[in-house]
Each structure stands twice: as structure tokens, then as C-alpha cells.
## 1
Amino acid sequence: MVVPSHPHPADGPVRAGIPEHGRIPRYYAVKVRLLELIGELGEGATLPTERELSERYDVSRASIRQAVSELVLEGKLRRRQGSGTFVAPPKLVQRLSLGSYTESLRQEGLEPARTLITLEHRPADPGLAGELQLVPGEDVIHLERVLLADGERIGLESTYLVSSRFPALMDVFDPEESLYACLRDQLGVVFEGAEERVETVLATPREALLIGTNPALPMLLVHRVSWEPGGKPFERVRSLFRGDRLSFSTRL
């Protein structure tokens, strides 16, 4: 495959893939051409077969396969078993703020929903107790839900709340609705601040099954501890999101 030397809109990403020895990996040059093709085809369109792409770009099917695999991992393409590979829709944007998941998605014009997996009382292990300033073994409320956007599963959220702070939570909270709205409007919680950490991880087999994703796809993990005025923490949240369907934004 010959990569043109004249200026080209794809030169930017091509140059980004040039290693120190100066040779462009063949699959990466193919990937750039596929990005152009994705833009031309548009959301939901079917990608040509490996054989057709191999003939179009005059490269091996192995190079096509590697380029397509990377674009699937990045969320640019989607594979459907028995149907082919399709151009993926744009990623959803989750704002990093003290607002809730519900509010954030609705600002993007999407309809949030949740599926309850677990709602229980359990003793805090030493790590959780340390984060919530509790004594190990002290009771916490554990809430686990699959998160959806316009009916599509995009994440799994596990929240731990200090039971002694919210003795009436089980009586007033609807697991299909916003937890933060309940805490704020019905239980009088004032959010003073939170500390969040974002990292990339792979889902466990159980998590991948609940979210409906391939365990090999990268996930975005958000770990959050929130506190009320006075600095007393009241919740720890572990949110796992599909890296191919969601990105984060914040204003600094």
C-alpha cells in the first residue's frame, strides 16, 4: 500500500502513528483510510467485508483485521455477531460534576434508566470503612444498578451509603429513579464536595455480563467519595462505564 506524500486531511493521524524508525505500520495506514470511510458512510452503515477492504486498499486481510479491531476498541465501529461490522454512533458525554447521572444525560437529550441488581444492608470491610470514616463491620447500604441511556446498557454503578445517616432510605427510595434526587429532596442531603478518580480497567466476567459487553473491551472506572458540610463522607460510588460508548468532560 502506498501512502501519498502530498498534503492530505489524514496526514495528521498518519503522522501520529509513525514510530521512531520512521516507517508507518501498514495496519495504521489502513486504519486512517478506514476513518475516512467511516466518515463517508455515516452512523449505522455497514462496513465492507474484509475481502472487499483488502482488495480496495491492496493490503492483507490481517492488516484490515487489526485496523478494524482497534476501531472497535475505540468505539468507532461495532461488531454484531452474524450481521457484520457497522459504523458506531457518537460516544455519549458524561459530565464530571456534583450533578447526578440522570441530570447529566437529560442535558444531552437522552433518557436515563436503571435496572436494580442489589439493594441490601451489609457490614463495611476495612477499606470501605476507612473511606467513609466508619468502624470496620459497621452497617452500610449497598445499591447496585445497571445504567442505561435511551434503553442501551452503558454502565454498572455500585453505591455504598452510611446506614446510620439514612435509616429511612429503604422506605422512600425508588431504585428506578435518581438516588441523588432522593437524597437531596427527601432526605435533606447537602452535597458540599466529592473526590473522583477515573482510570481504565477491564470488566470482570460478571460485570461484562451485566453491562452486556465484551470482557476484552476497555472500561472507564469512576471512583467517588462524597461528603456533606463539615467534611463527613456519606457515600462511596464505583461506576463502571463502557469505554467504547462514553467519554467524560469537565470545565476547568
## 2
Amino acid sequence: MSDLTRLPGSLPAPLDDGSCAHLPGLEVPPLPLPATDGSQVDLASLPGRTALYIYPRTGRPDEALPTDWDLIPGARGCTPQSCAFRDHHAELRGAGARVFGLSTQATAFQQEAARRLHLPFPLLSDAQGRFTAALRLPTFEVDGQTLLRRVTLVLRDGAVEHVFFPVFPPDRNAADVLAWLVAHPA
């Protein structure tokens, strides 16, 4: 099994193909999403700023990675990205943003990851794909699964204020979001 906490040095970097160009300024639809803390989160109704990092899937130490996972640009790194948001959580909150992660994985799977990684914020499940479809988020296919491509949104009062895409390397994303928040105070 692979060490999910470390990024291999030879990962291919994703390219900006324009698939997120429509997101800045977009109003988030009122779609409550199940969260790992047992709540339902409607991102459209949250006041102020929210950092929403969107990732393909969290791996488990006892499972093999999907086929050719390290060869898919931007696929590898969900655990390091989540851990970076965990490690910067207090600073992100101090900069005025709440934090959520979002994937298409089921809530029960995400709950295991949130416990194992000691995340101080909830992960949101879009297993039904309604949020993905409403925002026209970029996806890719692997092993018969449709997964989200890695993108981070800064939401402000229910609208997309800023987009980080492509996100690479994923373990630096939280620091990049924090730097942007500090440079653009609310």
C-alpha cells in the first residue's frame, strides 16, 4: 500500500483547461449537503467567507489506489490537502473563513477519514452529484467512478468570490488560500 500522507515527487501537474472559468461570481444553489458532523450544510445560506476545497477522493491506508492514480494529473494528494487545511484551520478561521472539504464520497466513508485525519471541520458529501451538476464542476472518470477534479472556492455570502484552479501541489493549497484571504480582507 502507498503512504497517503506523502506526495510522490513525479506527479504530473494539472493544466488550466478553462473548466472553472465560469465559476467566479456564480451564486451557489441552495442545496443542503450531508456533513460528517451529522448536520446538513447549505453553502448558499452561509454568511461571510467559506473556503471550500473540492477533492477527488480520500484514500484509506488499507485500500489500493485507483488504477494509474499517480498518472492522472491532479488526482493524488487528497490526504495531504486535507491535513494542510487541518493544520492551517485556526489561521483560516482567524482570516475570517470557515472551512469545508467536499467530494462525491458517501458520508460514512468521509466520517472515517475525518476521524482518522483529526479534521476540525466537516467534510461534505455530494454523492448524488447535484452540487457538482449545479456548479458544472469539472470531473474525471476512473475505475467506473465519476470523481471531482481538485478545485478550491472561496465563497462570500453564497457566491463564488475566488477560484483556485488548478490546485497543485495539493499540500500547499491551504497556505495559498490563507495568503489570498490575508491579502483580500473582508
## 3
Amino acid sequence: MSVTDAAWSAFVARYAVGSVVHGDVVSVVPFGAFVRIGEVDGFAPLREWPAPLEEGAIVPVRIAAIDPDARRFAVHPA
């Protein structure tokens, strides 16, 4: 998903590292999953999760890192 300026600005204005929210698992890959919060997708590393993530699931997550220059963020289980 390509992140628009407006979507990214809204994300960083609303969330900070440590925020706990619910995200939608939009895709699963061998090394993790992509979780959508608002209109932005972040990465959930597989090694952080006690059980496999499934596409379509809504999961509680903690925002672990935000990289504003790359417009990326990572989440861990909440």
C-alpha cells in the first residue's frame, strides 16, 4: 500500500511509540505480517508473536518503532 502524505501525517499525529491499538492483519508473509492501523500498514515481525497471525484478524498491538523518513512502523503484541 502506498502511503499518502495525508495518511502518514494523520498516523504520526495520532500515534506514538508505545501506543496500544487494534490493527487489522492485511497480509501474512513467512517472516511476519502487515498490520493496518488507520490507512497505514506496519510490520509485525513473526518472532515477536506467540501464535501465528491470520489474515483478516484484528489484533491488539503496541507500536514499537516509527521511522518517519521511510514512512514505516513496526508493531509487537500488546
## 4
Amino acid sequence: MKIETERLVIRDFQKRDVVGLLEYLSNPRVNCFAADRLCSEEAAFVYMQYSQKDMQRYAVSLKKEDFIIGDVFVLRENEDTYNVGWHFNKRFEGKGLAREAVIGLLDYLFREAGARRIYGFVEDDNIRSKRLCERLGMRREGCFKEFVTFINNPNGTPKYEDTRVYSILKKEWNSISAKSITNN
């Protein structure tokens, strides 16, 4: 898969992405990605090559510099339903790049991959991702209270996190003009 937007390319990982990937996954900012923490270029290379069963990961790189600034991942749950998520480098925040990448991904899934429904899980303290979902026209379908644990509290007990579900249907995506999403 290859998706081009105005400033980005979403593509398969390449060996040269190791340094950029390590930069933002050496210290994941949200607990749900604690298991994705990388501590070496070797670990980053392994991460690029292997993913969970049925999950596809793609690099998000700046078009001009071809430098990886994040990645998106997609899990096809059945023939027309996809679970999506993303990681982005903090150094590139505030420029609309995550929004541009996710718009490109959702548009691709709806128009090319036959998606009818796309959803994502967002932990309650991940304010930026919740805002992004809402700006893309995704609706909050619910909140699972103390749904999962990724880390422990200081006393060693599991820290359970509330997790929100955001989704959008193809008919909703089609009714939103690309201009209204990008200006949002």
C-alpha cells in the first residue's frame, strides 16, 4: 500500500526508517503503547518486520525529506470492518500531520479497501488522539471503564485504564467533505 497526501507518504517500512522509529518509540507517550517501547535499532528493525496476526503497519514519512514521523496500523476484523491506530513523533506535533495521515488512511480504507465501518480504541488520558478522532467526524460510541491495564501503579498493582471507542461509517465519511475535515 502507498498513500500520498499533500505533505506525507504512507508506505511500507524501509530499513532507513529504523532511526526515526526508534526516536518516537523509545519512549511511548501513552500507556497503551508501553509494550511497543523500543530500546535499540535492532529492536526497531524487528518491530518493522513483524506485527500481530492480521495487523498491518505502515510508515508515515515526510514527502520531501522521506523521514519517518510516525506509523499507522490497521487490523481487518472482517470483510468490511477495520480497527485503526497510530503513533506519531512528538517533535512533529501541532502541524496537522497526524490529521493529514489519518485522513489519508481512512479515505483509502473506505474508497479502496471496501471498509464499511472503521473504529479505534483511545485511552481516556490520550487527549490528542481523542481530539483527532472527533475532528475527523468519528463519534464516541462508548467508554469501557477500567478496560485494560498496560502498566502497574507504584505499589505494583495493575493500573486499569478507561478506554473510549470512536467510529465512523462509510456513509458518514462520504457525507463529510474532505475540505471540512482538513479545515477542522
